């Protein structure tokens, strides 16, 4: 789940990040998708690509100037809805009573609300309600390179190969590739949210849905790459295919 925190008070922003990270850890232990959290202290940064986020938490204490159009967080919420494609907006009430402000604007039902200081039980309720509103989300992995970031669904990833101790090249559909500073084990751990990806050696992993042919010691992918398959890992491909077939037959 991708979450944005917009708050012009840095202390409150950091506190919300900490609370969300704790909830993310709990979600992972329960086998759920963890949270990708970005925080913003100004509206311009938030408005660059707000559609990326499943939930946007908003609070704003002060306008940026006396003539600033954005007087409080509700004005930011209005701009988000005008941009379109927004899933869940959560108004965090502290200085402003956002429930009352939204009701006066006829917008009360468009948003969720939480009071500061934030209680864990209230945050859990907001996250649960947001999940219900989203429905069953498509698992997404944030793959960060040195200069670029790709948000990938399962079928977007073809394979990945380690190049040295802490460098992995991830190959995506559409001829895309991204070099990340990591090791293959850490990347595979992140990819456990996907069922079609499996390790095939100590330096490589692949998506079984992108295999076009196999030999005893290799697999040819649909991007024409040939990935070496260690005999110790070869059974992984068969296991993953069985899991996918069993799911389709349910």
Shape: elongated
In terms of DSSP E residues, the strand content is 25-35%
CATH topology of the largest domain: Rossmann fold
Spell the H/E element sequence: EHEHEHEHEHEEEEEHEEEEEH
Oligomer: single chain
What's the total number of strands? 15
Brief sketch in words of this structure:
The chain contains seven helices and 15 strands.
Layout of helices and strands:
Layout: E1 2-7, H1 10-29, E2 36-40, H2 43-46, E3 55-59, H3 73-83, E4 88-93, H4 98-104, E5 112-115, H5 120-134, E6 141-144, E7 149-152, E8 157-162, E9 168-172, E10 177-180, H6 184-190, E11 197-199, E12 204-207, E13 211-215, E14 218-221, E15 226-228, H7 234-248
Parallel strand pairs: 1-2, 1-3, 3-4, 4-5
Antiparallel strand pairs: 6-7, 8-9, 8-12, 9-10, 11-12, 13-14, 14-15
Textual characterization of the structure:
Helix content is 32%, strand content 27%. The chain starts with a strand and ends with a helix. A hairpin with a 2-residue loop joins strand 13 and strand 14. It has a five-stranded parallel β-sheet with strand order 2-1-3-4-5, sandwiched between helices. The chain folds into two domains: 2-134, Rossmann fold; 141-248, LytTr DNA-binding domain (OB fold (Dihydrolipoamide Acetyltransferase, E2P)). It has 250 residues and is an alpha/beta fold.
């Amino acid at each position: 789940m991708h979450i944005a925190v917009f708050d012009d008070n840095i202390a409150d922003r950091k506190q919300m990040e900490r609370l969300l990270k704790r909830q993310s850890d709990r979600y992972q232990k329960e086998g759920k998708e963890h949270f990708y959290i970005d925080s913003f202290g100004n509206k311009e940064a938030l408005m660059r690509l707000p559609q990326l986020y499943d939930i946007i938490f908003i609070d704003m204490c002060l306008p940026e100037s006396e003539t600033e159009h954005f007087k409080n967080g509700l004005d930011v919420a209005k701009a988000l809805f005008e941009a379109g494609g927004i899933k869940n907006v959560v108004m965090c009430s502290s200085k402003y009573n956002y429930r009352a402000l939204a009701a006066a604007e006829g917008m009360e039902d468009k948003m969720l609300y939480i009071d500061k200081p934030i209680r864990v039980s209230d945050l859990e309720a907001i996250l649960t309600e947001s999940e219900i509103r989203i429905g069953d989300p498509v698992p997404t992995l944030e793959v960060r390179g040195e200069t670029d970031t790709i948000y990938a669904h399962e079928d977007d990833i073809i394979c990945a190969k380690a190049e040295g101790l802490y460098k992995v090249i991830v190959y995506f559909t559409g001829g895309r590739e991204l070099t990340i500073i990591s090791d293959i084990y850490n990347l595979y751990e992140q990819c456990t949210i996907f069922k079609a990806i499996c390790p095939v050696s100590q330096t490589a992993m692949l998506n079984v849905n992108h295999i076009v042919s196999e030999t005893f010691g290799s697999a040819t992918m649909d991007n024409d790459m040939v990935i070496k398959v260690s005999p110790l890992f070869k059974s992984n491909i068969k296991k993953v295919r069985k899991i996918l077939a069993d799911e389709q037959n349910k």
